[in-house]
Design goal:
- The structure is a homodimer of 167-residue chains.
- The first copy, chain A, is mainly alpha-helical.
- Chain A is built from eight helices and two strands; from the N terminus they run ααααββαααα.
- Chain A has two domains: 73 residues, Winged helix-like DNA-binding domain superfamily/Winged helix DNA-binding domain (Arc Repressor Mutant, subunit A, Orthogonal Bundle); 77 residues, no CATH class.
- Chain A has a two-stranded antiparallel ribbon.
- In chain A, a hairpin with an 8-residue loop joins strand 1 and strand 2.
- The longest helix of chain A is centred in the last third of the chain and has 30 residues.
- Chain A is globular and about 50 Å long.
- The N and C termini of chain A lie far apart (49 Å).
- At the A-B interface, helix 1, helix 2, helix 6 and helix 7 of A face helix 1, helix 2, helix 6 and helix 7 of B.
Chain lengths: 167, 167
């Protein structure tokens, strides 16, 4: 943010950056979908994000210190990575997903992952944070032999889809 | 919301309502400050909310089912109450406050409460939810003899201010 915060409140400081639906959806797709390039983020968007909105939100998230942009050079596509502050948005995502699950209708295919994150509790969130640090910051996971949180999520997601299909 | 959600994702459903800085600040002031009337919400706003923005956000939060508006009759000021869905935004507020504490500068006076909520953990959040249900929905707390979460927060807040002043 270029401007001073409107107050010294921690919640205000957070919503000045995170209080934007498109910014959160971009962070969600980078976090859970590991989409690191502009084109992937456009093509995979469930909400049909417009390219001008995506461009402005990526710029704002870089300026706010939640993403870094790695410009790979002429003709190469720039890659976006989460910073530690960006990775730490995960608990906010989980809380938002829990709220959406409880208080809004959703689509089974898209609800499964939010349900897994809710039911996995703080351990799963911690494991995902370790994995995001490895992917985005190059920090090795504390226990490299442990199953990846994303594998757990993917396996349970696929099982839920099979279970759903066989009903 | 009048329109269909942009996708069936639980996080998207949440940010379509909660992904707005002013909506979150209004909910924060109702939740933590127990400000129930338009004038109180304007007068107490740390961020200097404009009356037209406050009016639009109150309307949207009522339409989205997070607040109810009790029109007390001619000449009486309308009172706003949180619904259960509105009360359940508390864990999102706590997650946002934790993020703001960790990744943004703040003001000591305004940080104390976020620190208390962070350090109080799930038990304090649960106690606050019980208290909000009592205040806003008229549901008696499960243990009416237990100290109120808001008293705990206030006491610790005052102690922190005294401690701060005596340094």
């Amino acid at each position: 943010m270029d401007t001073a915060p409107r107050s010294g409140c921690a919640i205000n400081a957070a919503v000045e950056v995170l209080g934007d639906p498109w910014a959160m959806l971009v962070l969600r797709d980078i976090m859970f979908g590991n989409r690191r390039h502009f084109r992937e983020l456009v093509a995979g968007s469930e909400e049909g994000i417009a390219t001008n909105i995506l461009a402005s939100r990526l710029k704002q998230l870089v300026a706010a210190g939640l993403l870094t942009r790695d410009d790979a050079g002429r003709g190469q596509r720039a890659a976006y990575s989460l910073t530690e502050a960006g990775i730490q948005v995960l608990p906010v995502m989980v809380a938002l997903g829990n709220w959406g699950l409880a208080h809004r209708q959703g689509e089974r295919r898209l609800r499964v992952r939010a349900e897994l994150l809710r039911d996995g509790g703080p351990e799963l969130v911690a494991a995902m944070i370790d994995e995001l640090r490895e992917l985005h910051l190059g920090v090795p996971r504390p226990d490299p032999g442990a199953p990846r949180a994303s594998d757990q999520l993917r396996a349970a997601y696929e099982a839920a889809l099979l279970d759903n299909a066989s009903r």
